[in-house]
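To close the section, here is one more complete example, presented without commentary so you can practise reading it yourself. The ligand is flavin-adenine dinucleotide.
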Amino acid sequence: MGPRILVTSNGYGGGGRRILVVGGLLAATVVGVNAYRFFNNQEPDMTLSRLRFTPIKLQSSTQLTHDVKRLTFALDNPNNRMGFTASSAVLFRVKLANGKSEWRPYTPVSTETQRGTCDFIIKRYDHGTVSPVMHGLEPGDQVEVWGPIPFIKYEPGKYQDVGLIAGGSGITPCLQLARRIVGDPSDHTRVTLLFSNKTADDVILKEELDRIAAQFPSKFSVHYIVDKPPAKNKWTGLVGRVDADVVEKVMPPAGKSTFIGICGPPGMVATISGDRPNPMAQGRIGGVLKELGYTNVFKF
Ligand SMILES: Cc1cc2nc3c(=O)[nH]c(=O)nc-3n(C[C@H](O)[C@H](O)[C@H](O)COP(=O)(O)OP(=O)(O)OC[C@H]3O[C@@H](n4cnc5c(N)ncnc54)[C@H](O)[C@@H]3O)c2cc1C
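Output:
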């Protein structure tokens, strides 16, 4: 019946309606094609799909701090890569003790090109639903993944400087993006990471971050800041909260060629970069970053 609508009376009104109908059909087609592309995202060598949840098994887990673990999952095919591009998250679906299933987003920290396995850093919330299940997984246990869920599409060379501000387990999208940039020899973007934690014991992945900084001294630098430092002679990093002075001191200056990404507890993100009306929305740039004139800001 649809095409009959195109047969209208003579005159401009009919032509206008025809244009509207054709335009509507075209728009619907574009939406349909884009939706098809979005959901039918699987390539032969990738594990992630948006059409279904894919089972993967825990290969190993390492306790990094009292409440953070690194989990390495074996992909469904040892030649596969997970199938995300920086920067993205994936959904994990797990079975709860009551038999129901629940899912939460987590951010891969291994590179896009890693094959056979994929790594995650996961913080446990004692009263949480999914994070305690993730922490309780034993090697061989199965969960399911769906995705990817893109945050931003990183374009090499678009910015001269990428400044990343991470709080606690908010390091995950920052590490993913930093690894993407330093791992591409043709990308000359400089990455500066400011990593904030309560205490020195809470600083996860310090060895890995320091190793990346030593390997790529002209491309990657990292600054640590803690609220409560340990004995003075043991802490060489910054002390206190991230404020305008700290950002001005260590981050690349504001300008068209600087991009800032931030991820951390909501209070920290609001103070530094402005409030988010909800976790899905960016909100306006505010706080310290607005005060210092930054305009290219993304809240992961
Ligand atoms: C896009 C995206 C990517 C993410 N990537 C990661 C990642 O790589 N690693 C990671 O560890 N987490 C990540 N998270 C957070 C993760 O998805 C879960 O929200 C987190 O693991 C808590 O889930 P839960 O089911 O255990 O707790 P829920 O059942 O959802 O929450 C129960 C209680 O736990 C506590 N709680 C939960 N979340 C928080 C929080 N963020 N801050 C303070 N208290 C909290 C609160 O007391 C809350 O009432 C990401 C979130 C998003 C939106």
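Once you have examined the tokens, check your reading against these statements. The domain at 161-299 is CATH 3.40.50.80 (Rossmann fold). The chain has three domains: 2-39, 54-150, 161-299.
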